[in-house]
Structures are given as structure tokens and as C-alpha cells.
Design goal:
Elements: H1 2-20, E1 24-29, E2 36-42, E3 45-48, E4 60-61, H2 67-73, E5 76-77, H3 79-82, H4 95-104, H5 111-117, E6 132-134, E7 139-140, E8 145-149, E9 159-165, E10 170-176, E11 181-182
Antiparallel strand pairs: 1-2, 2-3, 4-5, 6-7, 6-11, 8-9, 9-10
Length: 189
């Protein structure tokens, strides 16, 4: 009886885990500039699984001015520039979008969530550690930190960023002044 129960339990856990991380992988060709992006369907939403690299938006930069960095990790956008950077039919994610993404990967407190969303993780989201740009024009933390703008109203002169720290293995929602830094954009629909 115990073997039977254990077998059933393993089947249920396995089938739920595969459903949780089942994904449809696709591509999107941005006709504005010809860039091609990988996409992934996670928990009812289609996400870019690469950072946006649309150059025609004012308030965006390549890390240290290098076009190779833009090709590899996308552009870094100021908050205002991020709000209009996604192509038609796509948008900047809301807080609810990011919370749903994190929950579908196991939840903010689960130790496996970071790995599931990380590069080559089971969700296909593939965080890219593009670092950020300061208001003073300094580029910092490439390879270790990634920030993604969230479309939220400015409250008390601050906005929210989904922040991934590779060395700590953490995902946080941080509040910053919109003009202080430039971060990456992931489009969703």
C-alpha cells in the first residue's frame, strides 16, 4: 500500500512540475529594426526571453557604449524610455506580471525559483545579467546583476524594479528614483 501511494505521489508531483514549467518557445521579429527575439509562454503570458535591443527609443544605451554588448545583452533604458520601448502588441510588464512569473517558478521564497528563471533555467525566461547605467553615466555590475523595469505608477518619487543578483542568488523588488539608473526591458503580452 505504501509503495502504491508513493508511486501515485511521484506521478502527481512529476506531472504538476512538468505542467508548471511547460513552455512554448517561439520567436518575434521586430519590424521596427529587424531584431529577432526568442519568446517563451509562461503561466498564461508570452515573454521575450531576451532583453530588448531597440535603439530608436531615446534614453537607452549599450553597456559602455559597445554595440557588441547591445547585441549580446540588449540595451539599458531609462524608466521613461522603457515605457514606450516594446513593439506594438507588446508592453512593459506590470507588477502582477512579474509576481505571476515568479510564482509560476516556485515563489519568491523558494530556493529553486532563482535557478528556474536564470539563464538556461527550466522556465525559459533566461535572465541576462546586463548590469545597469547610473545617472552619472557609469556602467556597473554586468555579469552579476540584472534589473527589469516594471510598469508601475511613480509613488513617493520612486518606481519598482525586478532585481536579480547572481552572486547572492536572489530576486528582489527594489524601489529607486526613476532617473537614477537605466535597466533592461523584457516585453510581455
Amino acid at each position: 500500500m505504501k509503495k502504491y501511494f508513493l508511486t501515485i505521489l511521484i506521478i502527481i508531483i512529476t506531472s504538476n512540475a512538468s505542467f508548471l514549467f511547460s513552455q512554448t518557445v517561439g520567436r518575434y521579429d521586430d519590424n521596427r529594426d529587424g531584431n529577432d527575439y526568442k519568446t517563451v509562454f509562461i503561466n498564461g503570458k508570452t515573454w521575450f526571453s531576451q532583453n530588448l535591443n531597440y535603439a530608436s527609443t531615446s534614453g537607452s544605451w549599450c553597456y559602455e557604449g559597445s554595440s557588441k554588448e547591445c547585441d549580446k545583452n540588449g540595451r539599458l533604458y531609462c524608466f521613461e524610455g522603457s515605457k514606450n520601448a516594446c513593439p506594438a502588441g507588446w508592453r512593459l510588464p506590470t507588477m502582477a506580471d512579474f509576481e505571476s512569473l515568479v510564482e509560476s517558478a516556485g515563489g519568491k521564497k523558494s530556493p529553486g525559483t532563482f535557478n528556474a528563471l536564470n539563464t538556461n533555467g527550466s522556465t525559459g525566461f533566461n535572465v541576462q545579467y546586463a548590469g545597469y547605467r547610473t545617472a552619472d553615466g557609469l556602467f556597473l555590475k554586468k555579469g552579476n546583476e540584472a534589473g527589469y523595469w516594471i510598469n508601475v505608477p511613480v509613488k513617493k518619487k520612486k518606481v519598482t524594479v525586478a532585481y536579480f543578483n547572481k552572486s547572492k542568488g536572489t530576486i528582489e523588488y527594489i524601489k529607486i528614483k526613476p532617473a537614477d539608473r537605466a535597466y533592461s526591458v523584457r516585453c510581455v503580452k
